[in-house]
Amino acid sequence: MKRIVVTGAGGQIGSWLVPELRARYGTENVLATDIREIGGESESGPFRVLDATDGHALGEAVREHRADAIFHLAAMLSAVGEKNPRRAWDVNMSSLLAVLGVAREHGCSAFTPSSIAVFGPSSPKDPTPQDTVMRPETMYGVTKVAGELLCDYYHGRYGVDTRGLRFPGLISYGAPPGGGTTDWAVDIYYQAVEQGLYTCFLGPDTYIDMMYMPDAVRAAIDVMEADPDVLEHRNAFNVTAFQLAPAQLAEVIRRHVSGFEIKYDVDPVRQAIAESWPDRIDDTAARAEWGWAPEYDIEAMTVDMLNNVATLPKGAT
Ligand code: SER
After folding, report:
1. pTM, to two decimals
2. Whose CA is nearest to atom 6 of ligand 1?
3. Set 25, 140, 158, 207: catalytic member
4. Domain that holds residue 199
5. How many structural domains is the chain composed of?
6. Cα–Cα distance for residue pair 111/99, rounded to 1 Å
């Protein structure tokens, strides 16, 4: 992996991944793309506006950049996907098909994030094994299962070096998440600093796997750098750092923000999605096959989040 194209570079993951890739592989070697101008760090190096569903435009970008790897981050998340399921299918699947076609044509490896959303109510919840029943109830989850299969297919049929991770909810400051069920775990930090009060759309004891973004970015790069001969589960590995519920995180934040209060105004759609997902996924395969281990626990993440959110201009996300 030497010359890289990133789709969805302005999103929650991309805004962290692009600077890290540029630090490791050189600014000029990483072409950031997004459907719109994004400003910020991603535009401080090579950047172009690109609709990831447009295979022709993506192919041109890969050819001109002489890329050997694609990180495909553009996608619609779970909650926003339930508002327009057909569009979620179209955006998520047509962009992935474009990426895989281009990767095949230009000999690129391809990283695609999968998600805990591939699991559903009939999957074992605690722990959820690497290989188990995957019958999700959200369109986002349906596209992620189909995406994993499509990546397997392009690997088996055409030899494309496809790799992926089943990310849990990702927590970060900077670019906000794009309409997911796990967004509460980001919003809570902003509201704690700005208002001292957060009204949560999930119930107090709803546990979901989570991870701090610096670990997620390192995991994405590490799985792409792993020796292909040792990978049994290329699409896609369960990875997690810890399990979080709103009441529990509020307690941790209260140790740093005295008087912080949490209230609940449960959104039945997102609550149902959260309850259909695992409480805790088993990431033994990632640990064994390519040495995955998170660095941030809940406390270390909370200190870092609060410090950074507090130094951003008020209202910035
Ligand atoms: N964070 C995502 C969501 O909530 C899960 O992959 O949709």
Report:
1. 0.95
2. 115
3. 140
4. 170-210+241-309
5. 2
6. 10
